[in-house]
Amino acid sequence: MKMATERSYTALMKRPLLAVSIGMILAHTSSVSADPTCRGVEVRFTPQGLPAKSGREELRPQIAVWIEKKDGSFLTDLFVTRSIGMLGLGNRPGQAWLKSDFRWPYGRRPQSLPVWAHRRGKTYGYVMMGGKCSPTCPPDFQGSPSDDDNTVAYHGPVSSTENYYCSPSGWRTQRMNGVDVVSCASAFYGSKGYYAAGKKSPYPPRADLSVVGGNDSPDVKRFSLDNDVAAVSGATPANGKLIDPIRWYADSLIPDADYDLYVEVGIEGDFNAYWPPGKATPEPHAEWDHLGKDPFGQPSIVYKVPFRLDQSGRIATVTEYAGYSDYKGESGTINPPDMTISQSGGSGADRLAQTTDSNGTWRVKVAVTPCDPGMCEMPQTPSKLQFKEITDTTFRLDFQVPMGAPAAEYRVRYQNTGPITAENFARALPAPSANLGPPGSMVGAQIVGLLPKTKYYLAVQPVSRCGSPGPLVTAEIDTSSANFTTLTGCFIATAAFGSELEPEVHLLRRFRDRYLVSNPLGQTLVGSYYTLSPGLALLVSQHEPVRQLVRDGLLPVVRALHVATGL
Questions:
Q1: CA nearest 387: which of 330, 445, 324?
Q2: 61: closest CA among 43, 78, 80?
Q3: Which of 140, 308, 311, 514 has an alpha carbon 20 to 30 Å from 539's alpha carbon atom?
Q4: Residue spans in the chain of domains classed CATH 2.60.40.10
Q5: Dist. CA 90–CA 325, nearest whole Å
Q6: Among 145, 169, 148, CA closest to 288
Q7: Three-class SS string for 256-323?
Q8: Can you give the pLDDT at residue 292?
Q9: What does the pLDDT read at residue 383?
């Protein structure tokens, strides 16, 4: 294994923003004094992920970055991707071995980043499928418990409106600026879960839920309060691009000493001959099983960089991985490198790309720099915010970089559950990154994967180059009406008429998109329909007399809607 190397570091790198969008400005500028013992740590790497293949979107990694003392005790979190840190991927309803997919709401994934999760030494309530009535909920219409943790289907009695995740059959993938974008085709109605008595998880629960519905457990109100990593959560970095530096500033309470920085990288479905598919559990409701994917491939990979925290400004790099995790996620064990882990193509140990620059060839680089008192003036908040390219699932925000003190970054968060304030900023979703230009230039960021016909609230927070956050600039925008480019839903009508391309199915789908998903009552009706319809659709498709009966019942409805709406 190659040893980590150290070199002198001469200047701070520029840090771009994380992303952005519109509004009412609360800005004022200020300056702060630098702590003479303040030291900054910058971390850089290039995630690779796996390219898109037939029937599968591009696979992007889950990543955690943290620092430990030399005795192995945990020091601090630096970064964790939002699916783990914000959206509860490791601790959510649904047993771990279920097939799942990106943006699905169910199936906890304890194997995602288990080294990070266990070595932090913290535990949280264990989230299981359920709601207000759990653990003694009435059965669903199929006769099975509605809070059954072993299925993704039929949880209506424990469900409420979902603000991020999609129905297992209600998501779509499209290509935007060379990246696969996954979004929800319509509103979803799903279970948020509850804390199971006597059980704990090393992963935090969701932090993005601020509204509790009538079917939700009161435990849901505690999720965001219990989540202590939302503030360091960030959008998943783009594949194949050197990330903007992840920065951390050590204060005078942290002594000069030797430390270890860890980067853990997990990718679901990263298979090879030693870690083939086949470990996932089939969905008990057979009509859903074909929709999910087996996530259990090669375990997460860990890179370790020893470095010295002091005023010398040294750089440490590493090219080889330190080991891999327990694939079940049951411990924080780091298994030593071996032949079972792939070494190329963005798979296995190659999940972070090799980069060559003036510091040599490396996969992870750690730069330590003293905080310059002249860099601590608070930057102004951005101005001339402009929304562009607004669709039903995405928008772009352009804004002008202000004059005056330069920013290390502009932290940007968004949500659709209400205005963002200083108090809830850390619990809003972090946006993707965008390049930071010189003062006076217009820069932009694109936010994707949104719900159609939905109001989103945004906030931008400037951060000085010695790590001090400034006041928020807030904004809000409505996404446009749904413009579906793939055919989803209408299960019963499709089963009755035989194809999603039949004109009757097309009219019913357009009625849903135009008149139902645009209002709360309609969204509830649509969500309930998606909860109940797959099982009924299976029955309809298998019995021709039932298909004929349903067709006969739907035709008068279709004709009436055609006359009433002109669709």
A1: 445
A2: 80
A3: 514
A4: 373-478
A5: 15
A6: 169
A7: CEEEEEEEEEECCCCCCCCCCCCCCECCCCHHHHCCCECCCCCCCEEEEEEEEECCCCEEEEECCCCE
A8: 82
A9: 76
Q: What residues are paired with 478 via a beta bridge?
A: 455
**Average of per-residue pLDDT values in the chain:** 80
Decide: 51 and 346 in contact? Cβ < 8 Å. yes
For residues 419 and 367, give the distance between their C-alpha atoms in angstroms, rounded to a whole number: 37
Q: List Cα–Cα distances, 33 to 37, 251, 405, 407, 463, in angstroms.
A: 12, 13, 14, 15, 14
Quick check: 219 and 158 in contact, CB under 8 A?
A: no
In angstroms, the CA 191 to CA 274 distance is: 35
Helix H, strand E, coil C: the string for 365-380 is EEEEEECCHHHCECCC
Residue found under tokens 């357009």: 510
DSSP labels, 210-253: ----TTS-TTHHHHHHH---GGGEEPPPPTTSPPPPEEEEE-TT
Looking at residue 92, its amino acid is: R
What integer pLDDT is reported at residue 216 of this predicted model? 94
Residue count of the chain: 567
DSSP 316-357: EEE-S--EEE-TT-SS--EEPP-TTS--STTSGGGSB--EEE
Domain 373-478 CATH superfamily: Immunoglobulins (2.60.40.10)
- Tell the residue number behind the tokens 């005023």, with chain if given: 311
Instruction: Give all strands (DSSP E) within 60-203, no chain letters.
Output: 62-69, 74-81, 124-128, 159-162, 171-176, 179-184, 188-191, 194-201
Residue 423 burial by CB count (10 A; 0-12/13-18/19+): exposed, middle or buried?
A: exposed
Confidence (pTM): 0.78
Flag residues of the chain having pLDDT under 70.
1-37, 52-58, 141-142, 170-183, 185-186, 372-374, 433-435, 481-506, 509, 513-514, 516-544, 547, 567
Structure tokens of 271? 């298979």
Long-range contacts of 469-472 (CB under 8 A, 24+ apart): 469/411, 470/27, 470/29, 470/30, 470/378, 470/379, 470/381, 471/26, 471/27, 471/28, 471/381, 472/26, 472/381, 472/420, 472/421, 472/422, 472/425
HSE-CB at 206 with a 13 A cutoff on CA atoms is: 27
